[in-house]
Design goal:
The protein has one domain. The protein is mostly helical and 220 residues long.
């Protein structure tokens, strides 16, 4: 397990939790203040449903890989089509997020959070800046940034799977990438034996959670 990979996974978990708490805090503050400006990204049942389905499918994939990693059934060539499917679905979710009207960019939401009794704004700003490309927070919603982060993590896992799980690579390189069962360890970034898999799982979990956090009451 790489210390760099583990550190990245821990930072990702902290960043995702801060964004989710930020969204909840802004939503609550906006409601109390009676503000007419929607600071959070608009809720989308499409994104909610698609992200939830993708999360479920990825966890099944990760669980299956834990069982076959290090064997020919775990070679990248056997699973390339699954990565293509995951990445295509993330692209659809991102396009959907970018096309939604309403709400404000993540950076502006952070600025608004600093003007009310919501100290989380100061805590989340550096994390969002570090996780986002230059200027993205000024134009993209927090949900869009979470999707992009999930895309980056998925691509990191795909490229490592291709590099470490093939006929010419040592089997241990593949088994350490996916670790061993049980699957729930990938949700513990401080203890995960498969930090890149953990990073993908956490980013998808935070995306689903963030969308649920901004879901209007009664919209079941």
């Amino acid at each position: 397990m790489s210390n760099t990979e583990l550190a990245f996974s821990i930072r990702l978990a902290a960043w995702g939790r801060r964004v989710r708490r930020l969204l909840r805090g802004i939503a609550a503050t906006t409601l109390v203040a009676g503000c007419t400006v929607q600071l959070t990204a608009p809720y989308s049942s499409d994104i909610d449903d698609q992200a939830s389905a993708l999360q479920s499918d990825f966890l099944r994939f990760a669980a299956g890989m834990q069982m076959v990693a290090g064997t020919p059934k775990g070679y990248y060539d056997e699973h390339a089509s699954q990565y293509a499917d995951f990445e295509a679905r993330l692209a659809v979710i991102r396009m959907r997020s970018e096309s939604l009207s309403g709400g404000v960019p993540c950076g502006r939401a952070l600025d608004a959070a600093k003007k009310v009794p919501l100290p989380l704004g100061d805590q989340a700003a550096p994390s969002i800046a570090a996780a986002s490309p230059q200027g993205e927070a000024d134009s993209a919603s927090c949900i869009t940034i979470l999707v992009r982060l999930a895309q980056n993590n998925m691509e990191r896992l795909r490229s490592q799977h291709q590099l470490r799980c093939n006929r010419s690579a040592k089997a241990v390189l593949c088994t350490t990438l996916f670790s061993v069962p049980p699957i729930f360890n990938i949700f513990s970034p401080g203890q995960s034996d498969a930090p890149i898999v953990s990073a993908v799982a956490i980013s998808l979990n935070e995306l689903v959670g963030a969308e649920r956090d901004i879901k209007p009451l009664g919209n079941e």
